[in-house]
Amino acid sequence: MIQVKNYYLSFGKKKILNDINYQFQAGITAIVGPSGSGKSSFVLSLNRLTDLYSNTRYSGEILFEDNNILIQKKNLGKIRHAIGTVFQKPTPFPVSIYKNLELSLIELGTVEKKNYLEKIKEVLKKVSLWEDVQDNLHKSALKLSGGQQQKLCIARTLLLNPKILILDEPCSSLDPISTLQIEELLIQIAKLTPVIIVTHNLKQAKRIAEHLIVFGIHEGVGSIIEKGRSEEVFLAPKHHFTKTYLEYEAF
Amino acid sequence: MNIKKNLIVLISFPILILFFMMISNIILEGHAGLSWNYFVTEASHAGRSGGIAPIIVSTTIIVILTLLISTPFSFCSALILTLVISKNRYLLSLFEISLTLLSGLPSVVFGLFGSAFFGKTLGFGYSLISGALTLSCMVLPFYTKILHDNFKILPREYFLSGKALDLSLYQFAKNILIPLNLYAIAAGAIFSISRALGETAALIFTSGYVDRYPHSLLDSGRTLSIHIYDLALNIPGGDQAALKASFVFLLLSLTINFILSVVLKNTLLRGLQ
Amino acid sequence: MFKTISYIFALIGFILPLLIIIYLFRESHEAINHFGIKKFLFDPSWYPNEGLVGLAAQINGSIAVAFLSILLAVPSSVSFVYTNEFLLPKKITFFNNLGIDTFSGIPSVIFGLWGLVKVVPYFAVNHPPGTSLLVGAIILGMMIFPGLVVGIRGLIQTFNQHYQFSSASLNLSSYSYFFKVFIPANIKGLTGVFLLQFGRSLGETMAVLMVTGNVSQNPDSLFSPIRTLTSNIALEMAYATGAHRSSLFMSGLILACVLLLLSLLAIFLRRDDHEY
After folding, report:
1. Any idea which architecture C2-271 has in CATH?
2. Which chains touch A (3 or more CB pairs under 8 A)?
3. Residue in C1, C3, C4, C6 to test binding to B, most B beta-carbons within 10 Å
4. pTM across the whole model
5. Would you give the DSSP letter of residue A140?
6. What domains are defined for chain B?
7. Domain segments of chain C: what residues?
């Protein structure tokens, strides 16, 4: 499990996150909040992907398996394998479907080449993509629909055997049917692997999440406004901001 | 795996090493005997000794002329491209492709054209003005492209306010367009200078070989690049003098190019191709 | 007033390419009539004073030296971009790129001069006369190297904007990312870059002139001296008259057409990039 303690984040002079504290648990945790409240930056911090931005500065602790990943200098790759990420816009590499998944297997390094196809079939079945693509594994991944591409992205991340899966608004550019399919997939995954999902869609959060974190902008910087079990927060929000936000978004 | 990576790193550097060898050879062998005199005396013994004063004069005149000619043409072309032709997508593509194609033509072709058109048809013969006109043709597509790229990303508001105030095209250009695009104009100008200096093939048929002081714009004169070429290929024993001139030339072009890179980075990072 | 002048200036600027082609045609007219196109392109005997104007040797020379220069420069430039952008620390990358940008402006005579006084003598020892196809290719390879690097670098930077995060989240090795994803996905763009520089090699005059020996013969070995179309024009224009001069214009026209075609191809390849 990931534990975040007193985490501050800024990009250059701009402060992004203020004093974040949270202990992640099993199941699905949904992170909601208005735009600009730092949700994406927060989840990207969990495996140090924020390092790819320029002038990233942070303080505090993010503990994963008893290590503070913030002070780790080497082996960030291992962390990113263990804490997998799926992004908002589906970004399969512009190569074949087979190749996309093969790349993950090569990076994993523990599977023999003769078993590749088997593993690929396995994971594609898991994300309900096998039926659609089994005859077209060598066609470009870009020819798939948005929903299929996103499932592919989830698949390539799953191949790395992550211990935690992070998704940053994975369905915001997808149609409702694909969205539901991916939600079902996440529920399945969450039985074994904790899932953290950032979403704008409160209905989605209600549908699938056990835990809820509400982000908001406090004094110009992103902070956690409220957190707890999702039914409790939805039924009886304690903070004034949460109340308004939940009502507003729930048209 | 490591073998592959090592191989890759290994083949990255041979050409760079050649570059360094070239530059160091020229610096080490060319700086000998360089003095202030070199820049103010005329050449003697067909260039084997003496200085390069008349060559500097010719080169400077050609460069300045090229700048003077190409700037208004490029500016107006970019202006019309942005304001008029952009209304029609196909026309815009046509012109942009035309400019790109022009920029791909080799310098000899410009030399041939220059000698036929400016030299024969317009009657300028072998002269500084022929050379400058030819160079302006070469430089035009690049200069226009830099300006146009910068003009077209200007927010609409500038153009609208110009219309609203009922500014004439001249006033618009002078008071709004130019001040906002100084870096791009500078980049284009520096590029023209760099190109004009570096050209040889386009000039041997248009501005000629003569190594005395030019007496008028219609007189022939040689530039530094032609001087080096002549010394290297046509004058036996001219190697040393060629290296000396190359040293000066190299320093000059490296400096100008360095400045150009810096200025370009301050425009919209739009490259030249 | 300013408006009218602007329009006139712009118009002149835009009809320039047309004007150039027209003039080339005009001046080569005489030669075409005199000798016929087939002879130009396929006869390797270039003795204009005796009425023989076969350009085949020069055409082969130009193609050979340009092709060889690409062979030498492309693998090196691709590896260099990989090494520079992915393996070296950021500060060194910046410094290298600055160097490359500056080198790209070194005038061709300097390459030619260095080739003549340093590289040619080196080869002359074992393979006289020294001035040859190989030296030409080496010098040209140096000249197009910065152009290749800048072109490839542009492609990888655009590519990174879209895929950098995905790649990092999977901890893809830089080797996989560059050679297994970037290159296969950008074959068209890369080919465009290579074509452009091939065109540049074809059109280069001074540097090849100074190091290839200028003998009008078909290149039969790496060390044989050759003459390119461009050096042909540069050397003989000064004293050519009548049909001889006209044939030089003809070779200029051939060059122009080939380069226009290459540029068009490169433009279409760039446009053909898939949407990310």
Report:
1. Orthogonal Bundle (1.10)
2. C
3. C6
4. 0.88
5. B
6. 31-272 (1.10.3720.10)
7. 2-271
